[in-house]
């Protein structure tokens, strides 16, 4: 589908996501804002210049994003600094390929370990069960990364 063939675009609630319908087959696509800097790279390049309030704001935005997911009973499943983008000092959580909607009981999502081990709840190595607590563990590692560089 070429850009000039797009005849139907709907803006998302936050203005960063658009929904596009391909007129040839009726399939929908998502178009996202291009961001080339993940949190890890952002911290590597800017850590020396970041003030405490900058780090606190980033941590708060990530925690609020995770809280929003959890209020919808969605676990991310692969939260790490490579899956958090920074653009104009705004935080965006991405890569929901391993996310699942769950009930309050922990659930076995996969038959094998996936994701970045340094960010994974150690319980997941034993029983392969992810829950909201597993995401919170990953958030803790990210908070450490934000505070220490």
Automatic annotation (TrEMBL):
Example of a GO MF term: protein serine/threonine kinase activity
Occurrences of domain Protein kinase (ranges): 1-149
Organism of this sequence: Gigaspora rosea
Extent of the signal sequence: none
Record PROSITE patterns: PROTEIN_KINASE_DOM (PS50011)
Keyword Kinase tagged: yes
Family according to the record: Belongs to the protein kinase superfamily. TKL Ser/Thr protein kinase family.
Name of the protein in its database record: Kinase-like domain-containing protein
Entries under SUPFAM superfamilies matching the protein: Protein kinase-like (PK-like)
TM helices/strands, residue ranges: none
Coiled coil: none
Lineage of source species: Eukaryota, Fungi, Fungi incertae sedis, Mucoromycota, Glomeromycotina
Superkingdom of source: Eukaryota
Keyword flag Cytoplasm: no
Keyword vocabulary terms for this entry: ATP-binding, Kinase, Nucleotide-binding, Serine/threonine-protein kinase, Transferase
Stored Pfam families: PK_Tyr_Ser-Thr (PF07714)
